[in-house]
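Here we describe the complex-level prediction in full. Unlike the single-chain runs in Section 2.1, the two entities below were treated as one system.
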Amino acid sequence: MQQNNKDFPLVTSVGVVAEPPSLQDNTADLDRLHAAVSRSLPEKLATRPLTIPFQVMAGLGRRFRRAGFSGHALINVAPHQLTIVDFLKTNPKKIPAMALDLGTTHLEATLIDLVSGNNLAHTHGPNAQMQYGADILSRIHYAAGKASGQNGLLKLQHAAVDSINLLIEALGEEAGIEPEYIRAISVSGNTTMVHLLLGLSPYHICREPYTPMTGAPDPFFAAEIGLRINKQALVWVLPNIGSYFGGDLISGILASGLDEMEKTSMLIDVGTNAEVVLGNKDWLIACAGAAGPALEGGVARMGMRAGPGAIEHVRLDRENWQLTVSTIDDQPAVGICGSGLIELVAELYLARVVDLRGKLCRDTVSGTKKRRDFICKHLLETEEGLVFVVTSAETSGHGRPVVLAQVDLDAMMRSKAAMYAILATLVSQVGVEFSDLDRIYVAGAFGKHIDPGSAITLGMLPDLPIATYVSVGNSSLHGAELVLLSEKARIRSREIRRKITYIELNVNQEFMLRFSGSRFIPHTDPHLFPSVPIFSREDPGRNG
Amino acid sequence: MQQNNKDFPLVTSVGVVAEPPSLQDNTADLDRLHAAVSRSLPEKLATRPLTIPFQVMAGLGRRFRRAGFSGHALINVAPHQLTIVDFLKTNPKKIPAMALDLGTTHLEATLIDLVSGNNLAHTHGPNAQMQYGADILSRIHYAAGKASGQNGLLKLQHAAVDSINLLIEALGEEAGIEPEYIRAISVSGNTTMVHLLLGLSPYHICREPYTPMTGAPDPFFAAEIGLRINKQALVWVLPNIGSYFGGDLISGILASGLDEMEKTSMLIDVGTNAEVVLGNKDWLIACAGAAGPALEGGVARMGMRAGPGAIEHVRLDRENWQLTVSTIDDQPAVGICGSGLIELVAELYLARVVDLRGKLCRDTVSGTKKRRDFICKHLLETEEGLVFVVTSAETSGHGRPVVLAQVDLDAMMRSKAAMYAILATLVSQVGVEFSDLDRIYVAGAFGKHIDPGSAITLGMLPDLPIATYVSVGNSSLHGAELVLLSEKARIRSREIRRKITYIELNVNQEFMLRFSGSRFIPHTDPHLFPSVPIFSREDPGRNG
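The structure predicted for the assembly as a whole is:
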């Protein structure tokens, strides 16, 4: 791969042949190595300064000599500098490196072979920082030391490192590789998670004017933060664009290829925030907003992350008034994840059980008997108002009914309104129409599970042909994999930073206006959603 | 100094003015700092990559913010990279840095202000490695672990670091500066001493083909080897040219300016070895040989390093046959240092008490009565043969006579023969004559104390006008000071390595021939020393 398209992984091996020392040439061992590596470097790398870091000198010299002065040097490929970090007698068949999506609640990682590009192992696990605060804001406060006794930042850093070290063990075990042979790690995470991992104060991230401490940290060695892989493994952190626009989204842009496209497309990543990028090879514009929690399952009382027993799909047969739900791993239902919530509310809207204001309405007189029976069975008046029972206590996984309460619906309505307002504001800023978009890439679990049709019905996503929507999976992780394998991707990640315009929605008037208009299903302006049926408030249930 | 001749010390401060973060520009703090420093760099440095090392990120960001985003960045100036290591609110009046001559037995150091170039403090002390071996060879063996229980190298490294840390304390105290404000250290030492300080195995240095592990180590941070100055102080190690040609001699070339001269000159540095460089701005040739010990006071039983009570000057009034000695610090004599030994033997040769073979001869019948009395008083027959009493037990500092025995004289004769053979071989290699030399720089204590006239009398130094000889003091230390202050000197130090031709005398036939011819006073070929009187063996003492 290196030779053909002249691209380079973060660590590369260079075949080295040197004459053994003699009285005619008794050049120092490491100078001999340096010269031999310099001679053997691919042309594209040959102009870069080549250094030998202090920590490796003794071991490197020893191994070079033991190998008989010929073998393979391992080189860390940084933007302005090459570093010789190890010497092997034989050409390494694999150079394992770790790609990490460092999420606020959840970590996901792959082990990638930098020689073949193959995926060697995959794992995931919780972020142990959860014990110190469930969300970004509480962690920033914890880091500042009010609850933590002044060393909160250190505790959070250690929790992140410990969590990653657990993943390292799991990856090593799955791939049958000792962690010390893992030669690099790329980290893709939101700006706060990256700060906490690096032991940098996130204090100003959440305070006006929302300034991170670092945007694009220089690569450093894994041992410097206690990661238990090879000590000189390079840590390559995806750069951020600001407090609310992290390396995880830069990864998403890399993975979707938005920054290289002729036609204008859009990338939507719904995590703790909804982060959206619009653009093509010439320009990129981005914004982020608090649209996420309800959609990720964080707000609804029955909400949960996409996991076993989470209701992810909901269908309502409006002929026979049969509700069909499917859960992840086909486990008995224990909650509703974001995609399930969206489908449920869309189906209930089409069934006119939820009205255009997003309110449950217990109309037990209209429509067919089947419809009336359905409503009597599922829509119950409780102490806290109307709730819609999705799964009864008898069939659920925890002996309690799985329900949708009005309060959950309200939260979802705010989220969906925010999402549409974000997208519409962004598009309007650059004077394009939704219909101009070639593709809309939807990242993450949200993108993987969501039914775009249901989201369109709710007025959450623009009313475009379903084929416009493309799920790109965990694009944060995919981007991290790309930067491990490709210097072009690493350069792109820095160019994206320079190229992108970031709109702060917190201070954007247009966003607030659009948000208000989006708090109806599908929208106050039905012309925006021609494919969605509109029901007047005075005509409930007539179609059922 | 920086602005005028566009030269740069190893650490420089750059005035930085940045706007505080705002909603219009909430660039990350360290990105803001990076951009502001980039804008403010002197033109000559502006093309170099500018990095922020991981270890300083948190502190640097904090200090930049505390200073209100304006102040002075401290920059480590490495050949291919600039590193921001600290941020100060006000322009530092001084940037203290340490220059170190890391000798086998003795360390000497100065504290230099990189802003003014002023010398702030000066100190010296023993090399604590002495406890593990008096000379280079015994340390190399100790490092290999036979006597040391396998961690000999580590013990030697710690001993060197401890010795340096003592000097650091002394320098700090003298200058009234906390060691953490010492921002750089340059190290000039022989190849073995540098290897031991860096924790690199010196095993192959003394084994054919005499290969060091490193020639020109990349700069690293002081904390990496436990030096108790600023953690990010750059350690700049003078490069070596081979096992027997260390950074101390590169320093000597820098300090003498040999590599920049129009006319051909020579540099002689007598330490544990005699190291000699010949050349000018176009070429340099060098060699080293074991001529040193006797001349440094290491072989003669009464020999000692130049220190209090060491006899450094000897004059013999051949009219009145009065011997006058002077000692360092005017203390009662306790031994003879190298320069004293040379003067003594030269005077004894001129007095025909030492013959042209370098043998003491007790001729008690020739010359005046004063001469005969002198010989009876000073030249005694003992169990171990003839000894010359320089200072009697009554007037010495330790109650024993200070004597010159034949065995000491023999050692000195070998040394002086080796020295002349080295010089003559080197000169002959490039086809110049001694008389072509513009200057002969003599470094070290040897150069400071030696009387060139006496050395010429013995046939140790070529018979040139006395004004040809210039003492350059501790040029190892001076070179270390230069590289702290000047990037040009640092570049020169690396260019010297490339430019120099090194002759291995151990395998040189010509050297062996010349050595034999030099084992007489002044030489088997008296035409080489027209200024020195020659006495035939059959005509002893007639001039006295």
